[in-house]
Structures are given as structure tokens and as C-alpha cells.
């Protein structure tokens, strides 16, 4: 087996389709099929169940997948290590980072600026993604570090809790609910907006809202799944629901007055913010320096404040 065969296998496994894999790898479909066939011959096992429109991993394919992923990640680590050796000056260093979009806030920006001051000329390739995607990017070796919500149980990943983000009740600006309420039961009949629940991940953002509502005695909460934070905010602004979200995620809308935050005395919901890295994966000196800065930053986080803009007549 060779690296081209492994790359073809991983691409088909990720996309579930030979045609899509051929487009992504800029190879003909027969060339992709040939590579998979050679790999199956070497392993003496069928790796995919093929249909006219899809390719699904067999039991053998699923067994081979994490090892193929580890090979690809190790190669990317090796390329990164060589690049760092060849970049002789500290100012030439760079590293890759993936974060959940809502964590790309002022605190992260401040940490990146601190890194640039510590390592002048440092470049950071920043990618935003969902928590699940952040883990996949780290696991594949595409990025060195990731920031996501909740720890990932994958054995290939090492997760380090950094901080927690308190969730707040956010409603439309003209909602009738008072500024302070004792608990969420006041809003039992409301339409709620939450993230989709991830299968086999009960400790996820998508499950958190339902847990909070059930815990406070709302037996059958009406929850609509919306997989975009921006879409959630727009729907709340339009009066089509209410939600729980971190203050950092709706700071601008609160300042503009298009959303309103309600203080809930009994609400203790929090999102754990976790650093993700691949176990035994290569981490550059610059990435390690950023990690130290990030740890210090989250140990003494700055509390965001909400100021309302007023119009002058």
C-alpha cells in the first residue's frame, strides 16, 4: 500500500462517494477506484460497500479508518516539523488553529496579539468550525490546536478544560418578560431555539437547553433546532423564539438594543471551553507559546460588559 491509496481511501470514506472523491483529489474516477482496489488487495478485505450513488465503509473499512487517519496525521506532523526546522528565525514561525466561531472573540484576539508581540512575524492560519469539525481537523493533523465546547471522548485527542462560558436568557427587545425572573418556568409556553442534538454526545450544546428546561419543571418544551448561531439571533430578533447563549455571542446585538438579556436567578447553565490537541501529535514551539498565553488569558478572563447605545434626537 502507498500514500496515494490511503489518501484516496480517506477521501472516499469522508465523502461517501467515489465521484466526489475524484473531484476533490483532481483524479479521474477510474484512478480512484484503482487505488482503492489495490489497497483492498493489499489488505485482503473489501473496504467499501459500493452502490451506484454511494460508498459505505464495511466492518474492515471501519477498522482500518483510524489507522489510515493516524498515518495521514503523522505525515502532516512530519511536514510541519521539517518546515519549522527550515524556518531558521523565530519571526518566521507559524501554526494552525481551529476554533468554534463563537470563541473567536475579543479574548482570543487579545491572545493572538500577545503571541505576535512575543514572536514577531508569527503567522496564524485560523479556521472556524463547529465543535465536531474542530475535533476532526485536529485529529486529521490539519491543525495543531483547537478550541471547542465540551470535551471530546475520542481516544486520539487530548482535551484540556480552559474555562466556562455562562449562558444567558436572550429574548426579543419588546418581549413582555421582566428584566429579572426567578426561573425559566415563566416561559414554559415559549418557542425555544437550540442547536441540533449530536448523536452519542449527550454532553453537547444541543442537549444542554433541553436538560435545563426539563430540570426546571418544563415537561414538554417546544424546541426548534437551528444549527447557526447567527440564524438563532435573527430569529429571536424577529420574535420567533427565545434562547440561551453566551454573552460574548450576542454582545453587539445587546449593545444595539435589538436583543434583550433577562436575568434568571436559578440559571446555572455553562458551556465548558476546551483546548483540543492530538495525543502524541507534533506541536510547534510557536503553538506551545500560544497555548501558554491562552492558559494565562483564561485563568483571569475579562468580564464583558453590555452598554446600550442611545440615539440623540
List the helices and strands and how they pair.
Blueprint: H1 3-15, H2 18-25, H3 29-43, E1 48-50, E2 55-57, H4 59-86, E3 94-100, H5 106-118, E4 123-129, H6 131-140, E5 145-149, E6 157-172, E7 180-181, E8 191-194, H7 205-215, E9 222-225, H8 229-237, E10 243-246, H9 251-256, E11 259-264, E12 270-278, H10 285-299
Parallel strand pairs: 3-4, 3-5, 7-11, 8-9
Antiparallel strand pairs: 1-2, 5-12, 6-10, 6-11, 6-12
Helix pairs in contact: 1-2, 1-3, 1-4, 2-3, 5-10
Write structural notes for this entry.
- The protein is α/β, with parallel strands linked by helices and 313 residues long.
- The protein has 3 domains: 3-77, Winged helix-like DNA-binding domain superfamily/Winged helix DNA-binding domain (Arc Repressor Mutant, subunit A, Orthogonal Bundle); 89-162 and 272-299, D-Maltodextrin-Binding Protein, domain 2, CATH 3.40.190.10; 164-271, D-Maltodextrin-Binding Protein, domain 2 (3-Layer(aba) Sandwich), CATH 3.40.190.
- It is built from 10 helices and 12 strands.
- A hairpin with a 4-residue loop joins strand 1 and strand 2 (55-57).
- Helix 1 packs across helix 2 and helix 2 (18-25) crosses helix 3.
- It is globular.
- The N and C termini lie far apart (74 Å).
- Residues 301-313 have low confidence and may be disordered.
Amino acid at each position: 500500500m502507498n500514500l496515494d491509496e490511503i489518501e484516496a481511501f480517506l477521501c472516499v470514506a469522508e465523502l461517501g462517494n467515489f465521484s466526489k472523491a475524484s473531484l476533490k483529489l483532481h483524479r479521474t474516477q477510474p484512478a480512484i477506484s484503482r487505488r482503492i482496489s489495490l489497497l483492498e488487495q493489499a489488505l485482503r478485505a473489501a473496504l467499501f460497500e459500493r452502490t451506484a450513488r454511494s460508498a459505505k465503509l464495511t466492518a474492515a473499512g471501519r477498522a482500518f479508518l483510524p489507522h489510515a487517519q493516524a498515518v495521514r496525521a503523522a505525515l502532516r506532523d512530519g511536514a510541519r516539523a521539517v518546515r519549522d526546522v527550515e524556518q531558521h528565525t523565530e519571526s518566521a514561525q507559524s501554526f494552525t488553529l481551529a476554533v468554534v466561531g463563537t470563541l473567536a472573540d475579543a479574548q482570543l484576539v487579545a491572545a493572538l496579539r500577545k503571541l505576535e508581540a512575543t514572536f514577531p512575524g508569527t503567522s496564524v492560519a485560523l479556521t472556524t468550525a463547529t465543535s465536531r469539525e474542530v475535533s476532526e481537523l485536529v485529529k486529521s493533523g490539519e491543525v495543531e490546536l483547537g478550541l471547542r465546547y465540551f470535551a471530546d471522548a475520542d481516544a486520539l485527542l487530548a482535551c484540556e478544560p480552559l474555562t466556562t462560558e455562562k449562558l444567558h436568557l436572550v429574548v426579543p427587545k419588546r418581549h413582555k418578560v421582566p428584566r429579572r425572573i426567578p426561573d425559566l418556568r415563566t416561559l414554559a409556553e415559549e418557542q425555544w431555539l437550540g442547536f441540533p442534538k449530536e448523536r452519542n454526545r449527550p454532553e453537547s450544546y444541543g442537549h444542554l437547553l433541553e436538560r435545563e428546561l426539563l430540570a426546571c419543571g418544563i415537561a414538554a418544551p417546544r424546541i426548534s433546532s437551528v444549527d447557526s448561531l447567527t440564524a438563532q439571533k435573527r430569529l429571536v430578533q424577529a420574535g420567533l423564539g427565545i434562547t440561551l447563549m453566551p454573552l460574548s455571542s450576542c454582545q453587539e446585538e445587546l449593545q444595539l438594543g435589538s436583543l434583550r438579556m433577562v436575568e434568571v436567578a436559578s440559571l446555572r447553565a455553562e458551556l465548558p471551553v476546551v483546548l483540543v490537541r492530538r495525543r502524541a501529535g507534533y506541536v510547534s514551539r510557536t503553538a506551545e507559546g500560544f497555548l501558554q498565553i491562552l492558559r494565562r488569558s483564561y485563568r483571569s478572563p475579562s468580564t464583558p460588559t453590555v452598554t446600550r447605545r442611545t440615539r440623540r434626537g
